[in-house]
Amino acid sequence: MPRRILSLWLPRLASERALRRIGAEGPPLAVVEKRGPAEMLACLSPAAEALGLRRGQPLAEARALAPGLVTRAADPEGQAQLLAALNRWSLRYAPWVAVDGADGLMLDITGSAHLAGGEAALAADLRARLGRAGFSARLGLAPTRGAAWALARFARDPVTLAEEARAAIDPLPLAALRLPGEIVEALSRLGLRRVRDLARAPRAPLIRRFGPELALRLDQALGAVAEPVDPAPPPAPFAVRLTLPEPIGLTADVMAALSRLLERLCARLAETGRGARHLRLELARTDGSRAEAAVTLARPMREPAAIAGLFDRAVEALDAGFGFDALRLSAPRTEPMAPAQLTAARARGGQAAEADALADLMTRLGNRLGLEALSRFLPADSHIPERAFQIASAIWAAPPAPGTWPAGPDRPLILFPPEPLAGPAGPTPPRRFTWRRRRLTTLAARGPERIAPEWWLDDPAWRTGLRDYWRVDTAEGPRLWLFHTPQAPGWAVQGSFA
Question: Residue 439: which H helix or E strand, with range?
Answer without folding.
Answer: strand 438-451
